[in-house]
Amino acid sequence: MQTDVKQILCIKWGTRYGAEYVNRIYSMVERNITPPFRVICLTDDATGIREEVVCRDLPELGCPRPTNAPGKWPKTALWGKTLFDITGVVLFIDLDVIITGNLDDFFTYGDPEDVILARNWVKPLERLGQTSVFRFEIGRHSYMLENFQKDPEGIAGKYQFEQRYVTNCIKSGVKFWPHKWVRHFRMDCLGPWPLRYLHPPKLPKGTKIVIFPGKPDPADAMLGKWSGESEVHSRLEHLKLAFTQKHKSRYRFIKRFFMPAPWIKEHWR
């Protein structure tokens, strides 16, 4: 396994996440890794990204983006035979994660050829992987991109999400990080919904990375709100709104209350 330089890879495309997200990633990595390391960002706009980050263009997908599935299919371009001047083993992380512990073990866990993902515990019976944090070797599984290019609509229609495609189609099979290393904010930090009205979100002991699939984002979770469109309310205000306003699901609205998570500010900077 590559041991000289630890490589962390991220992608920034579009306007949802600004340069500050990449800069936070670099700072969090720097505080939680044993050098040497480098952070590489594949992006369509490098404006404002700190100079320590190695920026490269977005890789070409090589086919039309599928329109019949919600997954982040442009990430499939990472599986090409080459990726600019990047070689060897890389640890990919999404921009909306919070690094809370040392990352060194992510580069020594398992074998060099392993594809290792976070476990998606939202669907435990499916044994599905989560590509918010995954490790792979550049070029080793180039058939993943080649097969996708042959039938992007068919593959997207069958698997819906690129993480399901990765989980099911890596020929050697995928492995998962130890559960305590990578925690899902909604599932592992919020706690059962009645207790969310009594205790702030916790950071479980031994956590190295917290992922935020879907909602809330870290910026909102830090304040104690579900999304950027919502407002911060007290417990009583939230319960009152649950019964005085129309909602698609009153039960879901009630569950979406939680208190601010002060540890996010400590780590996400």
Question: Topology, please?
Answer:
Layout: E1 6-12, H1 19-31, E2 37-43, E3 54-56, E4 89-93, E5 98-99, E6 115-120, E7 128-137, H2 143-150, H3 152-159, H4 162-169, E8 174-176, E9 182-184, H5 185-189, E10 209-211, H6 218-223, H7 235-244, H8 250-255, H9 262-267
Parallel strand pairs: 1-2, 1-4, 2-3, 6-8, 9-10
Antiparallel strand pairs: 4-7, 5-10, 6-7
Structure, explained:
This protein is of the alpha/beta class. The chain has two domains: 171 residues, Spore Coat Polysaccharide Biosynthesis Protein SpsA, Chain A; 86 residues, no CATH class. Helix content is 26%, strand content 18%. It is built from nine helices and ten strands. The strands form two sheets. Strands 3-2-1-4-7-6-8 form a seven-stranded mixed sheet, sandwiched between helices. A hairpin with a 7-residue loop joins strand 6 and strand 7. The protein is globular.
C-alpha end-to-end distance: 30 Å
Oligomeric composition of the shown chains: single chain
Order of helices and strands: EHEEEEEEHHHEEHEHHHH
Gyration radius from CA atoms, angstroms: 19 Å
How many E strands? 10
Largest sheet: 7 strands, mixed
CATH class of the largest domain: Alpha Beta
Strand proportion: 15-25%
| CATH fold label of the largest domain | Spore Coat Polysaccharide Biosynthesis Protein SpsA, Chain A
Helix segment count?
9
CATH architecture of the largest domain: Alpha-Beta Complex
Q: What does the overall shape look like?
A: globular
Tally of domains: 2
